[in-house]
Amino acid sequence: MFKIHNPATIAPPTGRYQHGIVVQPNARWLYISGQVGNLPDGSIAVGIAAQADAVWANLKAILADAGMGFEDLVKITVLLTDARFTQASRDARDRALGAASPPTSTLMVVTALASPDFLIEIEAIAAKV
Fold it and tell me: Are 125 and 24 in contact (CB under 8 A)?
C-alpha cells in the first residue's frame, strides 16, 4: 500500500500523476530500464501512438514477470523526442493504466534517443509490499 502526497499547500497535479508517494517499509523494488517502441519480434513500431503503446506493453510484461502490475508503479520518467508527442504519450498511458492510481511522473523532451527511430522511452520504478 502506498501513501499518496498531493498537499493542499501547492498546486494540484496538472495531469494524471501524483506529486509524491511513500512506499511502506520492506517493499520489494523493481527498477525498469528505459523501454522503447520495440515490438516482441524486435522490430520498431511505426509512429508515436504505436511506439507509446509498445512501450506500455513492454512495461506491463516486465511488471508481470516480477509478479507486479501497473498498480505497483511508483515513478515513471517519460522521454519524448518532440513536445508534439505529449498528448499521444498521455493517451497511451491512460489506456494502459486504466483505473490504476497513477504514479509520480516526469516528462522530458530530448533531442534524441539511442536510435533516431525511437520517439519515446519510459523508465519506471515499482514497489510491492
Answer: no
